[in-house]
Amino acid sequence: MSDDQEHQQEEAFDIEALLDSVQDHDGYHPTSKTPSFFYNSTQVINDIKHVASFSLVGEPELDLRARWGLQMNLENHIGKYQYQSYLLDPFLEEMIAPLITPLRKVVHDVTFGDLKGQAMNEHGDLLFYILNYICKTRGYKTIVKFLPHEVADLEPAFEFLKRQDKRRVWETRYVLLIWLSLMCMIPFDLKTIDSQATKDSDRIPLVDQMLERGKTYLHCAGKDRDGASLFLARLLTRKDTCRVYLPEFVHWARNSLQSEAPNLIESIGIMGTLCWIFKLGQREVLLPIADQLEQLLVGVETKEGLMSNSTVKKYIVKLSQRVGLCLLKPRVAAWRYQRGNRSLVSNLAPDAVRQGGGAGKMDKVSMTIADEDEDDENFDVPDAVENVIERLMNGLRDRDTIVRWSAAKGMGRMSNRLPKEMADDVVGGIFELFSEDVFELPNGEPDISSVSEHTWHGACLAIAELSRRGLLLPHRLTEVIPWIILALKFDVKRGAHSVGSNVRDSACYVCWSFARAYTPDVLDVHVRKLSNTLIAVSVFDRDINIRRASSAAFQENVGRMGIFPHGIDIVTVADYFSIGNINNSFLNVAPYIAGFEEYRRYLSEHLVDVVITHWDIAVREVAAEAMARIAVLDLDFACKSIIPALTKNATSLDSVVRHGALIALGRTCKAVKAHSDIPVEERIAPEVLQAITQVVPSTPEFTLSGFGSEHTRQALCVYITCLSEAAWPLGDSANQSAVLKSWKGIVYTTLERIEEPLQKLASETFRALVGQYGITETEFEQCLTRIRPGAEYLGQRGFALALGEIDYRDARYSGYSTKVVEALDVTANHNSMVIRGAEIKPDAESRRNAINSVTNIVKVLGIDYKRVISHSLSNKILQMYFRGLEDYSVDHRGDVGSWIREASMQGLQTMVPIVARLDYHLAPSQADQCYLSDEVHTQVLAKLLQQSVEKIDRIRGAAATAMVAILYAEVDPEAEAVPVVVGNGAEEEMRREPEYVLRIPHRVEVMKVVEKSDEMNLIWLQASEVYARIVQLLHLPEYRAELLLGFVISAGGLTETLVRHSSSCLTEFVSSLPITANDIMDVDGTSITPTLTLVEFANEIQKIIDRYEGQDRLIVPLLEVLDLLFESGILLLLNHPTDFDFAPMVKFVRRQTIKCKDTRKLCASIRTFCGLCGLGGKIKNAILLELLRLLVHPFPKIRRTTADSVYLMLSGSVEEPTKETEEVGKVLVDTDWNLAVTQLTPIRDRLYPLLGLEKPKAVAPAGPGRK
């Protein structure tokens, strides 16, 4: 193999690992601190000098790994300044000079120098790549200033470019083209430079070659195409080349673009080149070809294949406007509006100063329109300009943003050179774009639901460009500002989404440009409309970028105008960050601004008319809360205007309007009632009060079912909740009875909905309704009936939640507590029931909701727990939680029992500290009134420890939270610190010695494992951390059984990561255990510390077997764990007959294989059998008989697994292999165990004598007369 081939086969490496190593050594973190200077300038410059120090010809001195490392390191340091690239400016010369100097040298050497004919190596490509990356970060226009542009470099650079294969890295070609574009600007005639040029010819061979080479790069789809466009434009616009070569290029471009099937990539390159030509060329040079370009554009617009590309359309608009600018004389419109004084100090100065003399005086002449007597009649406007204006006008309607933006800038530039009358026609044409497809509603308001958002966006951009240049004269503001205010609120729903965010953004840009273009006197009459609308959009718009854009426009107007009411006070609060969060913007910033009377009513009306009826449900909900907070600032206006308007909208047939109005009406009525110092009946008209009470009864039935009904029901629940909590007047007793009946009907039917959030909301409404207006005994019994077994499951879920929301401390309902808790206990039972001869399987959600309801009852009762809940009922609640912790039910959704276990743990977390504190304060004579004994305390912690090693991360986290809450629950959490003597007794320190309510053994050991810290919440979610910590608690006998059961479930599970961590911790722990108690005695014969022994561990395993046999959920993982323990040889240490009797375990494993069709269980049993064979003796022979029986199992997979396991067991035996065992191994390996059982039985029978076993005799089935 050659050296080149060896070099190509470089060592593979991990790019991600290398990138991580680069980032790890970077001390800069942009999220933590905004850069104010180039942090790593020294390191970057040193790295660049290091890269540039290697030879650029021949074999590269650095391998691929080193080059990639340097490249990514520089990218990491430079790329972070993409958005603050100006920070690089002081160091650009030091960065670029070390790169371009060796590149310039190698360009000369390999083209005309000593190394002529040789190729540049990968180091050179790396230098070009770094140069391109700096161009990308800072921009080529800045970087090109630091490139050399000597005459001697032109030919070598172009010759070097010709040698670049298109398969080579594009960064090299791009930088070369940018460099050549700079050298094309040298002021010398290219004939004097070209060594092949002749004096009697107009053509320059070097230019011919450059043009042909540049045209080839127009076919590329990368950045080198952009570099080629600039290079060709610089070359063609030179004085010594434009006369000959520019018409030829235009002719070639026309032929290429107007061919039958023009190439899209090449067309983009050609159009880009023409745009550059008309930007860089002189007008007298471009005028002769302007007409040809107009014909070219018309031809391109007929090509459907090109017009479907947004870049082509952008170039058409850009080229068209530049052709139009070429046709018009370079001039600045004298008729434009010119603002004179732009000093912020003068704008913000007191009126007396502004109106006085000196520097603060505003020159009225400078602020007026310039002299209009200019002779525009002699100004000739070519006919082609009309085509340009029409094309730009169509561009404002285009669907692509880049096209509209280019057309808007073109409109501003063109209008600046037009006569006043023609420019005024252009402005009028732009205004007409707003009125396209706008219809008038019966109330006189414009209907914009049918307009194009693209047209409005383009029109707003054009208006902004015109006003920024002073081309929108002041008398036009009265006509345009109403459209701009409408654009600021442009939000039209189309299908499942809305359009208009770009329109609102561009309207903010218009308002920003107004501040920079006009004086305060001009905008004074429009201040009220603009300020109110900008403030409303700043705080109430849905999109964060629109809120910030509107806020920026408002701040600009405040700073430059100084006439916006309370402008400084508002901009200090409504800043970039405060309005970034929608909740803070709606609920804090907006009420603050509404505190100013000038904005209060407009914000309220904007909420009612626009935001509360918004298409986004989240916006409607937060707007309703904002409405309530603003309404209390002016109660009279709220009662006379806001509440009547919301009441009217609450009965709308539009579901969106109805939803927002219902929520806002409920919250506003509640807030007004709470803040009113007089009865609301005196503030609100009687007919409005009556209409408010009739909102729910008058709700159409079709809105409560079907599509979208969940939103209506949600709003109704919020409405009923707010009015109930506010004790809103419902009229006379007859009206109140009818209203309450309709309210309860909504709540009861909503509790039967399938949506869980809706059921939860309805249960909270039930609480408010019952708490304020009560509930009859008949209704109570009906609720209990809905949760009993056999009831409809959706109603069971909802009413189970609702019954837990009642405050049973109330004397009206305390008598129902026993019935409710007992009914919820029955609902929470996960065991199937037989009702009327049919088996009823309980619903998982109903069980969870029942447990959560009981927990809520306990939480609300608090210190009144024992007054309402009896001892026996408390025990029933406790047993319900314990029973819930054993719920491992599964359905098609997976482990739905985890919901019940989590709810049960949350119940224990709530109940145990409350009851334990009450027990603690009992007198010794009241010991019989203690609800929780010491044994119960220990049992609670043991069951939570079991859940803390479960296989589901969420359950482990919930268990940890519950354990911390219970374990660290104090008798008096608010006890003050007391002085404690520390050290040698000379000093005292204030300490707080907590007294815990949970009475458990080994508290110190448990608290070392279950710590109270924020970091522990994450540790319990990580299997790699939790099992290693908690396995040590297996030494404590009080928690051992439950904890070991949890370990068995996790270590025998299916999740690879969980099994790996839990099983490794368990085996490592068990392997370190002493075999018997005698092994942990010291020399004096006393035990060192309470320690688990291997014999005790085996006995605990046997207890699990005896208790849970028949429950495959536990037995299958247990078999997997037994296989693991036998495979590691741990249980084989119990080889003495007096240590442990394995016979029951063998019988247990045998029972699992009889009539079993679960392949996982069978495979685990087979592997456990093979592990038990390591015990030897009679047990081994009995197990071998069972394994030989499984060799002819009906399932081929079981036969194969048995054969493989027996072979591995025999080959791994410590006994010396015999001829017979070798023959057995050969039979096991050579036999195809996929054959039929009838064919395999004779083969299996050959193994009995080889293993020294007697073949079992078939037992004849018992006959009719035999016993």
From TrEMBL:
UniProt protein name: Tubulin-specific chaperone D
Domain Tubulin-folding cofactor D ARM repeats stretches: 312-568
HEAT repeat positions: 388-425
Example of a GO MF term: beta-tubulin binding
GO biological process, one term: tubulin complex assembly
Superkingdom of the source species: Eukaryota
Native organism: Linnemannia schmuckeri
Stored PROSITE patterns: HEAT_REPEAT
All residue ranges annotated as the Tubulin-folding cofactor D C-terminal domain in the record: 939-1161
Lineage: Eukaryota, Fungi, Fungi incertae sedis, Mucoromycota, Mortierellomycotina
Keywords attached to this entry: Chaperone
InterPro entries linked: ARM-like (IPR011989), ARM-type_fold (IPR016024), ARM_TBCD_2nd (IPR058033), HEAT_type_2 (IPR021133), TBCD (IPR033162), TBCD_C (IPR022577)
